[in-house]
Amino acid sequence: MESMLAVGIAALVIGLALGWVIARSTGGRNVRQRRLAQQLDALQNEHTRYQAQVNEHFMETAELFRRLNDSYREVHEHLAKGASRLCTETDAREELEQVQRDHQLSYKGPTDDEGGVEPPRDYAPRNTRNDNGMLSEDFGLKKEESSS
């Protein structure tokens, strides 16, 4: 009976040792998994907070633009009311015509076929049909005549 008791105690000690070794080897993975899960949760919470901040920023920006548009509309209405109250229609028409006449007299630039302003060109025009134009490599150079 003593030998059975000794075998039982030895089996218990060996079982406890094997259990401890197995728990130790698999326990490290569980700890690592728990750490990774905590980091993932922390990153997800941070991402959610960031999304909320971005959403709040754009909502505030939209509200500021709405108020800006309202302010511009109020200024425009104020100017329109003032113009209608302070100026008669004939005065306004005469003022516009005077501004147009002044603009036409002050501008002496090139015009297109319809009498309007010609847009700038991205090339240099030729002076004559045989001329190479200002952007040519030999523009302004005189050709030497060979005397042979």
UniProtKB/TrEMBL annotation:
Region (Disordered) residue spans: 97-148
GO cellular component terms, A-Z: plasma membrane
Coiled-coil stretches noted in the UniProt entry, renumbered to this chain: 33-60
InterPro entries the UniProt entry points to: ZapG-like
Subcellular location: Cell inner membrane
Biased composition (Basic and acidic residues): 139-148
GO BP: any one term: regulation of cell shape
Pfam families found in the cross-reference section: ZapG-like
Alphabetic keyword roster: Cell cycle, Cell division, Cell inner membrane, Cell membrane, Cell shape, Coiled coil, Membrane, Transmembrane, Transmembrane helix
Annotated membrane topology: Single-pass membrane protein
Family to which this protein belongs: Belongs to the ZapG family.
Protein name: Z-ring associated protein G
